[in-house]
Amino acid sequence: FKNINDMCGHEFGDKVLTTISRLLLYMAADKGSVFRFGGDEFVILYPHKNESEIGSFSKEIKNQVSKIKKIDSIEVRLSLSIGAATYSECESIIKIIDIADKRMYNEKDLNRKKGI
């Protein structure tokens, strides 16, 4: 995301965030609630789902984001990193977010190594 802001400016970066947030809101409409956590990070509370369903939903989000090719007639190549955690892993919402955050950063590191 830093590259988008650096190359195209913060105003365009805000448009990218708005585009992604609208997509997440649409995709999660009947599944859960979407919140902007800070910067370019979002949290989706996806209640009563198992790890398999969460994995499928995560893949579909990535697939849909990758289909975004232009924003305001500017060509873009978007990807994202997702970290997921379930309530069964711990009982504290703070801990769940911490686990998901660490997993997201692990995925970001893997994507950087792959050149994504």
Number of helices: 4
Using the alpha-carbon principal axes, give the shape: globular
Helix content: 55-70%
Distance from first to last alpha carbon: 12 Å
> What amount of the residues lies in strands?
5-15%
Structural class: alpha+beta
Side by side, the strands of the main sheet go 1-2
For the biggest sheet, the summary is: 2 strands, antiparallel
Task: List SSEs in N-to-C order.
Answer: HHEEHEEH
Low-confidence stretches: none
Overall number of strands: 4
Average pLDDT across residues?
88
The value of Rg in angstroms is 15 Å
Oligomer: single chain
How would you describe the overall organization of this protein?
This protein is α+β, with helices and mostly antiparallel strands. The protein is 55% helix and 13% strand. The chain has helices at residues 2-8, 10-28, 51-66, 93-114; strands spanning 33-38, 41-45, 70-71, 74-75. The strands form two sheets. Strands 1-2 form a two-stranded antiparallel sheet. A two-stranded antiparallel sheet has the order 3-4. The longest helix has 22 residues, at 93-114.
Name a few traits of the molecule:
two-stranded antiparallel sheet; two-stranded antiparallel ribbon; 116 residues; alpha+beta; 4 helices; 4 strands
SSE arrangement:
Elements: H1 2-8, H2 10-28, E1 33-38, E2 41-45, H3 51-66, E3 70-71, E4 74-75, H4 93-114
Helix pairs in contact: 1-2
